[in-house]
């Protein structure tokens, strides 16, 4: 462990952000082992969603792109936490917009004219370019954060409005809403543990040192941010894909990755009991 810390494979850190996980503790080849490992959740869920539409013969470029975006977040996040370099940090933050921008475009242009769809694509491309240049060239973080947060908020609002329009059956609508609500909760919970990891790092490090491995992994909270935001992102991609494709004629929650079908049934049962 000492050798790993003293002789990191990737050399000195050049990224301007570092997280609470201690660097190169597990191996000299991976700076933040848990943060890197947890990034794989994005890739696994992205592959699951892509295989679903391939199996159903629906893997067009437009429908496949968001799933590749989800996988891209995992690849870029893993690369960043593995190396702690400036260029991998930029790729990590760029990938967040590469996921949200196609989803925003798909929601805003659903059932719109071809001319409107093309215009909205140009507007979002310009917005994406401005944000990335400001962030990567001018080192401006606030615009990146506001643009990403606004994109996520817009996705949530548009999706919740689209569900009753696209799903007339009350039972199916309730099931899809349950999964969607869980996706929103997952994202918010992930953000909460991200904040705790940011502001309580000294205490978390002390706890990890006290309890030792492997239980210490449970207190690597930035890794849990990856897990919960991956779940939230996956749910958003799948729900939007199903809604805009007009395919929700029966309960689709059984096609989600485990344990989301169980979550949908549990939350749906809870809502039914309250209504009774």
UniProtKB/TrEMBL annotation:
UniProt: Zn(2+) binding residues: 81, 222, 226
Localization of this protein: Membrane
A cellular-component GO term for this protein: endoplasmic reticulum membrane
Topology of this chain in the membrane: Multi-pass membrane protein
Statement: the UniProt record of this protein carries the keyword Transmembrane helix: yes
Domain of life from the UniProt record: Eukaryota
Keywords assigned by UniProt, alphabetized: Calcium, Hydrolase, Membrane, Metal-binding, Transmembrane, Transmembrane helix, Zinc
GO molecular function: hydrolase activity, acting on carbon-nitrogen (but not peptide) bonds, in linear amides; metal ion binding
Key word tRNA-binding present: no
Residue intervals passing through the bilayer: 33-54, 116-135, 141-163, 175-196, 223-243
Cofactor field: Zn(2+)
Residues that bind Ca(2+): 21, 32
UniProt GO BP: ceramide biosynthetic process; ceramide catabolic process
Pfam families: Ceramidase (PF05875)
Main subcellular localisation: membrane
Family, similarity comment: Belongs to the alkaline ceramidase family.
Protein name, UniProt field: Alkaline phytoceramidase
Organism from which the protein derives: Penicillium nordicum
């Amino acid at each position: 462990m000492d050798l790993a810390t003293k002789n990191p494979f990737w050399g000195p850190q050049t990224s301007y952000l570092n997280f609470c996980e201690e660097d190169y503790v597990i191996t000299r080849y991976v700076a933040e082992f848990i943060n890197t490992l947890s990034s794989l959740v994005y890739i696994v869920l992205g592959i699951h969603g892509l295989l679903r539409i391939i199996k159903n013969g629906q893997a067009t470029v437009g429908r496949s792109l968001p799933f590749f975006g989800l996988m891209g977040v995992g690849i870029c996040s893993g690369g960043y936490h593995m190396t702690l370099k400036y260029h991998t940090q930029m790729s990590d933050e760029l990938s967040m917009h590469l996921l949200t921008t196609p989803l925003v475009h798909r929601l805003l242009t659903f059932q719109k004219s071809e001319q409107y769809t093309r215009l909205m694509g140009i507007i979002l491309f310009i917005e994406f370019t401005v944000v990335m240049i400001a962030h990567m060239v001018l080192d401006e973080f606030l615009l990146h954060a506001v643009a990403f947060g606004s994109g996520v908020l817009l996705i949530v609002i548009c999706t919740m409005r689209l569900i009753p329009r696209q799903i007339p059956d009350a039972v199916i609508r309730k099931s899809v809403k349950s999964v969607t609500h869980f996706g929103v909760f997952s994202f918010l919970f992930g953000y909460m543990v991200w904040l705790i990891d940011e502001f309580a790092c000294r205490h978390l490090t002390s706890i990890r040192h006290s309890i030792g491995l492997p239980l210490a992994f449970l207190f690597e909270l930035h890794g849990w941010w990856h897990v919960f935001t991956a779940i939230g992102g996956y749910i958003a991609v799948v729900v939007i894909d199903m809604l805009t494709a007009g395919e929700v004629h029966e309960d689709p929650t059984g096609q989600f990755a485990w344990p989301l079908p169980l979550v949908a049934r549990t939350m749906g049962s809870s809502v039914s009991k309250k209504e009774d």
